[in-house]
Amino acid sequence: MPVLLPLFIPSPPTGVWHLGPLPIRAYAVFIMIGIVVAAVLSNRRWKAAGGNPETLETALVVAVPLGIIGARIYHVITDYQLYFGPGRDPVRALYIWEGGLGIWGAVGLGALGVWLVCRRRGAKFLALADAMAPGLVIAQAIGRLGNWFNQELFGRPTTLPWGLEIAPEFRPEGYAEFATFHPTFLYELLWNCGVAVVLIMAQRRFRLGRGKVFALYIVLYTAGRFWIEALRIDKVNEIGGFRLNNYTSVIIFVLALVWFLWLCRHRPGVDEVVDASAVDDEDSPAEAAENPSKQ
Predict the structure, then answer these.
(1) pLDDT for 154-176, tens place per residue?
(2) Strand, coil or helix: 17
(3) pLDDT grade, residue 293 (50/70/90)?
(4) Cβ proximity of 75 and 66 under 8 Å
(5) How far apart are CA 178 and CA 183, in angstroms?
(6) What mean pLDDT, rounded, does the chain reach?
Protein backbone atom coordinates (compact mmCIF):
# COMPACT_ATOMS: atom_id res chain seq x y z
CA MET A 1 0.00 0.00 0.00
CA PRO A 2 1.26 3.53 -0.75
CA VAL A 3 2.40 5.56 2.22
CA LEU A 4 0.26 8.64 2.75
CA LEU A 5 2.18 11.66 3.98
CA PRO A 6 0.42 14.12 6.29
CA LEU A 7 -0.78 17.28 4.54
CA PHE A 8 0.76 19.58 7.13
CA ILE A 9 4.09 20.38 8.74
CA PRO A 10 4.34 18.72 12.16
CA SER A 11 5.84 20.67 15.04
CA PRO A 12 8.72 19.12 16.99
CA PRO A 13 7.47 17.33 20.13
CA THR A 14 9.93 19.23 22.32
CA GLY A 15 12.25 22.20 22.17
CA VAL A 16 14.42 21.11 25.09
CA TRP A 17 16.71 18.13 25.54
CA HIS A 18 18.48 17.28 28.76
CA LEU A 19 22.11 16.31 29.01
CA GLY A 20 21.99 15.10 32.58
CA PRO A 21 20.88 18.12 34.63
CA LEU A 22 21.80 20.51 31.79
CA PRO A 23 18.92 21.62 29.51
CA ILE A 24 19.83 22.03 25.84
CA ARG A 25 17.32 24.38 24.25
CA ALA A 26 16.69 24.34 20.50
CA TYR A 27 16.12 28.11 20.44
CA ALA A 28 19.63 28.77 21.77
CA VAL A 29 21.19 26.05 19.61
CA PHE A 30 19.90 27.54 16.38
CA ILE A 31 20.95 31.03 17.39
CA MET A 32 24.48 29.75 17.98
CA ILE A 33 24.51 27.85 14.68
CA GLY A 34 23.37 31.01 12.90
CA ILE A 35 26.15 33.03 14.53
CA VAL A 36 28.79 30.48 13.47
CA VAL A 37 27.54 30.35 9.87
CA ALA A 38 27.40 34.15 9.72
CA ALA A 39 30.92 34.42 11.11
CA VAL A 40 32.37 31.98 8.55
CA LEU A 41 30.66 33.66 5.58
CA SER A 42 31.50 37.16 6.80
CA ASN A 43 35.14 36.22 7.31
CA ARG A 44 35.46 35.00 3.72
CA ARG A 45 33.80 38.10 2.34
CA TRP A 46 35.84 40.46 4.52
CA LYS A 47 39.13 38.83 3.49
CA ALA A 48 38.09 38.99 -0.17
CA ALA A 49 37.43 42.72 0.26
CA GLY A 50 40.95 43.20 1.63
CA GLY A 51 40.09 43.32 5.32
CA ASN A 52 42.06 41.97 8.24
CA PRO A 53 40.37 38.86 9.74
CA GLU A 54 41.36 40.06 13.21
CA THR A 55 39.18 43.13 12.72
CA LEU A 56 36.17 40.94 11.97
CA GLU A 57 36.91 38.59 14.86
CA THR A 58 37.13 41.50 17.28
CA ALA A 59 33.95 42.99 15.87
CA LEU A 60 32.09 39.71 16.37
CA VAL A 61 33.32 39.33 19.94
CA VAL A 62 31.90 42.77 20.72
CA ALA A 63 28.82 42.76 18.47
CA VAL A 64 27.35 39.33 19.26
CA PRO A 65 26.70 39.86 23.00
CA LEU A 66 25.63 43.45 22.37
CA GLY A 67 23.29 42.26 19.62
CA ILE A 68 21.67 39.66 21.86
CA ILE A 69 21.21 42.22 24.63
CA GLY A 70 19.80 44.76 22.19
CA ALA A 71 17.44 42.18 20.69
CA ARG A 72 16.06 41.29 24.10
CA ILE A 73 15.68 44.92 25.16
CA TYR A 74 13.75 45.71 21.96
CA HIS A 75 11.45 42.73 22.49
CA VAL A 76 10.76 43.57 26.13
CA ILE A 77 10.04 47.23 25.31
CA THR A 78 7.72 46.50 22.38
CA ASP A 79 5.96 43.61 24.16
CA TYR A 80 6.12 44.96 27.69
CA GLN A 81 2.63 43.64 28.52
CA LEU A 82 4.07 40.11 28.55
CA TYR A 83 6.30 40.92 31.52
CA PHE A 84 4.83 43.86 33.40
CA GLY A 85 1.41 44.48 34.92
CA PRO A 86 -1.08 42.49 37.00
CA GLY A 87 -0.31 38.79 37.08
CA ARG A 88 3.00 39.18 35.26
CA ASP A 89 6.48 38.30 36.48
CA PRO A 90 9.06 40.94 35.44
CA VAL A 91 11.89 38.48 36.09
CA ARG A 92 10.75 36.52 33.03
CA ALA A 93 12.03 39.38 30.91
CA LEU A 94 15.45 37.83 31.52
CA TYR A 95 14.39 34.36 30.31
CA ILE A 96 15.83 34.71 26.83
CA TRP A 97 15.70 30.94 26.24
CA GLU A 98 11.89 31.09 26.15
CA GLY A 99 12.07 33.13 22.94
CA GLY A 100 11.65 36.79 22.21
CA LEU A 101 14.39 38.64 20.33
CA GLY A 102 13.77 41.78 18.28
CA ILE A 103 15.98 42.00 15.20
CA TRP A 104 16.14 45.78 15.22
CA GLY A 105 17.55 45.85 18.72
CA ALA A 106 20.15 43.30 17.61
CA VAL A 107 21.10 45.27 14.49
CA GLY A 108 21.19 48.61 16.33
CA LEU A 109 23.30 47.66 19.33
CA GLY A 110 25.37 45.16 17.35
CA ALA A 111 26.15 47.80 14.72
CA LEU A 112 27.29 50.15 17.47
CA GLY A 113 29.77 47.52 18.62
CA VAL A 114 31.07 47.01 15.07
CA TRP A 115 31.42 50.77 14.58
CA LEU A 116 33.46 51.12 17.78
CA VAL A 117 35.81 48.33 16.69
CA CYS A 118 36.19 49.80 13.20
CA ARG A 119 36.98 53.22 14.62
CA ARG A 120 39.65 51.77 16.87
CA ARG A 121 41.29 49.64 14.17
CA GLY A 122 41.01 52.08 11.28
CA ALA A 123 38.57 49.99 9.25
CA LYS A 124 35.70 51.21 7.09
CA PHE A 125 32.51 50.54 9.05
CA LEU A 126 30.23 50.44 6.01
CA ALA A 127 32.60 48.11 4.17
CA LEU A 128 32.52 45.69 7.10
CA ALA A 129 28.73 46.03 7.31
CA ASP A 130 28.54 45.11 3.61
CA ALA A 131 30.67 42.03 4.24
CA MET A 132 28.51 40.93 7.15
CA ALA A 133 25.05 41.59 5.63
CA PRO A 134 24.48 38.24 3.81
CA GLY A 135 25.72 36.28 6.81
CA LEU A 136 23.49 38.28 9.12
CA VAL A 137 20.34 37.54 7.16
CA ILE A 138 21.26 33.84 6.89
CA ALA A 139 21.73 33.77 10.68
CA GLN A 140 18.22 35.22 11.00
CA ALA A 141 16.91 32.46 8.75
CA ILE A 142 18.55 29.72 10.83
CA GLY A 143 17.34 31.32 14.05
CA ARG A 144 13.72 31.00 12.88
CA LEU A 145 14.02 27.23 13.31
CA GLY A 146 14.09 27.92 17.05
CA ASN A 147 10.59 29.42 16.75
CA TRP A 148 9.47 26.19 15.07
CA PHE A 149 10.71 24.12 18.00
CA ASN A 150 9.08 26.54 20.46
CA GLN A 151 5.79 26.43 18.52
CA GLU A 152 5.57 30.22 18.48
CA LEU A 153 5.13 33.16 16.10
CA PHE A 154 2.92 31.28 13.63
CA GLY A 155 0.29 32.83 11.40
CA ARG A 156 -3.46 32.63 10.89
CA PRO A 157 -5.23 29.25 10.58
CA THR A 158 -4.89 27.58 7.18
CA THR A 159 -5.77 24.28 5.51
CA LEU A 160 -2.96 24.56 2.96
CA PRO A 161 -0.78 21.43 2.63
CA TRP A 162 2.12 23.24 4.25
CA GLY A 163 0.09 24.38 7.24
CA LEU A 164 1.93 24.08 10.55
CA GLU A 165 0.43 21.78 13.17
CA ILE A 166 0.36 23.45 16.59
CA ALA A 167 -0.31 21.57 19.82
CA PRO A 168 -3.44 22.73 21.70
CA GLU A 169 -1.46 24.19 24.61
CA PHE A 170 0.35 26.58 22.26
CA ARG A 171 -2.70 27.87 20.39
CA PRO A 172 -3.73 31.46 21.20
CA GLU A 173 -7.02 32.24 22.89
CA GLY A 174 -9.83 32.01 20.37
CA TYR A 175 -8.02 29.55 18.09
CA ALA A 176 -8.39 26.34 20.08
CA GLU A 177 -10.50 24.65 17.40
CA PHE A 178 -7.87 25.13 14.68
CA ALA A 179 -5.04 22.63 14.27
CA THR A 180 -2.87 24.05 11.46
CA PHE A 181 -1.57 27.57 10.91
CA HIS A 182 0.56 29.50 8.45
CA PRO A 183 4.23 28.56 9.13
CA THR A 184 5.52 32.12 9.24
CA PHE A 185 8.84 30.85 10.61
CA LEU A 186 9.28 28.99 7.29
CA TYR A 187 8.14 31.95 5.19
CA GLU A 188 10.73 34.19 6.81
CA LEU A 189 13.42 31.50 6.62
CA LEU A 190 12.93 31.15 2.87
CA TRP A 191 12.62 34.90 2.34
CA ASN A 192 15.85 35.58 4.23
CA CYS A 193 17.75 32.93 2.26
CA GLY A 194 16.49 34.58 -0.92
CA VAL A 195 17.64 37.98 0.36
CA ALA A 196 21.13 36.58 1.00
CA VAL A 197 21.34 35.26 -2.57
CA VAL A 198 20.16 38.59 -4.02
CA LEU A 199 22.71 40.54 -1.95
CA ILE A 200 25.63 38.38 -3.09
CA MET A 201 24.56 38.42 -6.75
CA ALA A 202 23.80 42.16 -6.77
CA GLN A 203 27.16 42.98 -5.23
CA ARG A 204 28.99 40.97 -7.87
CA ARG A 205 26.87 42.24 -10.78
CA PHE A 206 26.81 45.93 -9.86
CA ARG A 207 29.97 46.21 -7.70
CA LEU A 208 28.01 47.45 -4.73
CA GLY A 209 30.03 48.82 -1.84
CA ARG A 210 30.34 51.66 0.65
CA GLY A 211 27.25 50.59 2.57
CA LYS A 212 24.98 49.77 -0.35
CA VAL A 213 24.86 46.01 0.32
CA PHE A 214 23.90 46.63 3.94
CA ALA A 215 21.26 49.21 2.94
CA LEU A 216 19.82 46.81 0.38
CA TYR A 217 19.67 44.10 3.06
CA ILE A 218 17.52 46.36 5.23
CA VAL A 219 15.26 47.26 2.27
CA LEU A 220 14.65 43.64 1.28
CA TYR A 221 14.32 42.28 4.80
CA THR A 222 11.74 44.88 5.88
CA ALA A 223 9.72 44.31 2.70
CA GLY A 224 9.40 40.64 3.59
CA ARG A 225 8.93 41.23 7.27
CA PHE A 226 5.94 43.50 6.58
CA TRP A 227 3.79 40.87 4.85
CA ILE A 228 4.95 38.03 7.09
CA GLU A 229 4.19 40.09 10.19
CA ALA A 230 0.67 40.75 8.87
CA LEU A 231 -0.03 36.99 8.95
CA ARG A 232 0.94 36.46 12.59
CA ILE A 233 -1.68 36.15 15.32
CA ASP A 234 0.42 36.24 18.49
CA LYS A 235 -0.65 39.02 20.82
CA VAL A 236 1.41 42.20 20.39
CA ASN A 237 0.86 45.91 20.75
CA GLU A 238 -1.17 47.46 17.95
CA ILE A 239 -1.78 51.01 16.77
CA GLY A 240 -4.84 51.67 14.65
CA GLY A 241 -5.37 47.97 14.02
CA PHE A 242 -1.83 47.36 12.76
CA ARG A 243 0.93 45.56 14.62
CA LEU A 244 3.73 47.72 15.96
CA ASN A 245 6.29 45.76 13.96
CA ASN A 246 4.40 46.60 10.76
CA TYR A 247 4.92 50.29 11.45
CA THR A 248 8.57 49.64 12.27
CA SER A 249 9.03 47.73 9.02
CA VAL A 250 7.45 50.47 6.90
CA ILE A 251 9.43 53.29 8.53
CA ILE A 252 12.75 51.47 8.32
CA PHE A 253 12.01 50.34 4.74
CA VAL A 254 11.47 53.92 3.59
CA LEU A 255 14.55 55.22 5.40
CA ALA A 256 16.73 52.39 4.08
CA LEU A 257 15.46 52.83 0.52
CA VAL A 258 16.23 56.57 0.61
CA TRP A 259 19.67 55.80 2.05
CA PHE A 260 20.36 53.15 -0.61
CA LEU A 261 19.41 55.51 -3.44
CA TRP A 262 21.52 58.29 -1.91
CA LEU A 263 24.51 55.98 -1.68
CA CYS A 264 24.08 54.87 -5.29
CA ARG A 265 24.04 58.49 -6.44
CA HIS A 266 26.66 60.05 -4.17
CA ARG A 267 28.95 57.15 -3.23
CA PRO A 268 29.24 54.87 -6.27
CA GLY A 269 31.78 52.07 -6.52
CA VAL A 270 33.68 50.37 -3.73
CA ASP A 271 36.47 51.34 -1.34
CA GLU A 272 39.93 50.35 -2.52
CA VAL A 273 41.23 50.16 1.05
CA VAL A 274 38.78 48.91 3.68
CA ASP A 275 41.06 48.19 6.65
CA ALA A 276 44.17 50.13 7.65
CA SER A 277 45.32 47.29 9.88
CA ALA A 278 45.41 44.96 6.87
CA VAL A 279 47.71 47.40 5.07
CA ASP A 280 49.91 47.78 8.15
CA ASP A 281 50.32 44.01 8.38
CA GLU A 282 51.80 43.79 4.88
CA ASP A 283 55.57 43.89 4.56
CA SER A 284 56.99 47.15 3.28
CA PRO A 285 59.53 46.93 0.40
CA ALA A 286 62.39 47.44 2.86
CA GLU A 287 61.11 44.69 5.13
CA ALA A 288 60.68 42.39 2.17
CA ALA A 289 64.30 43.01 1.11
CA GLU A 290 65.51 42.20 4.64
CA ASN A 291 63.37 39.06 4.79
CA PRO A 292 63.52 37.42 1.33
CA SER A 293 62.11 34.20 2.76
CA LYS A 294 58.73 35.97 3.15
CA GLN A 295 58.55 36.84 -0.52
Answers:
(1) 999 999 999 999 999 999 999 99
(2) strand
(3) very low
(4) no
(5) 14
(6) 90
